[in-house]
Design a protein that fits this description.
The protein is mainly β. It has no helices and nine strands. A five-stranded antiparallel beta sheet has the order 1-2-9-4-7, with no helix packed on it. A four-stranded antiparallel beta sheet has the order 3-8-5-6, with no helix packed on it. A hairpin with a 5-residue loop joins β5 and β6. The chain starts with a strand and ends in an 11-residue tail after the last strand.
Length: 126
């Protein structure tokens, strides 16, 4: 497997993979939202480059996806909305290389957790 590099600035989280291994994780992020009541949405603005990517939310055990969508590479930003039935079941947010043997990268320009109940709380206390 290749190396995964995640660069984080104040406003952008960028993941690059130097591997062409299918389904290789490009970036992961702990959303710290398991204490939120009920379900809601994880909304991500991103730019996919190179190859198709998968964007999803793992279960707590990290062995399956609760939700996942696939995104084709584009030059402009795209919004992906991931439905979460119950925040207490979520694990990490994941971006992965697609099933083709070509390197992929992603630039995440925004990520927001939106509870169904309309509460302003979008993460758990540290």
């Amino acid at each position: 497997m290749g190396d995964t590099i995640v660069d984080k600035t104040e406003f952008t989280l960028t993941g690059h993979t130097v591997s062409a291994v299918p389904w290789h994780y490009i970036a992961t992020l702990d959303l710290n939202a398991a204490c939120l009541a009920g379900g809601g949405w994880v909304v991500v603005d991103l730019i996919a480059k190179g190859d198709d990517i998968g964007v999803g939310i793992e279960n707590k055990a990290g062995n399956d996806f609760l939700t996942r969508q696939f995104v084709k590479p584009r030059r402009e930003s795209e919004r992906v909305s991931l439905r979460v039935a119950a925040f207490d079941q979520i694990g990490r947010f994941v971006v992965e290389n697609g099933d083709l043997k070509n390197p992929a990268s992603v630039e995440l320009t925004a990520l927001k957790v939106i509870p169904d109940d309309g509460s302003a709380q979008s993460s758990c206390p540290e």
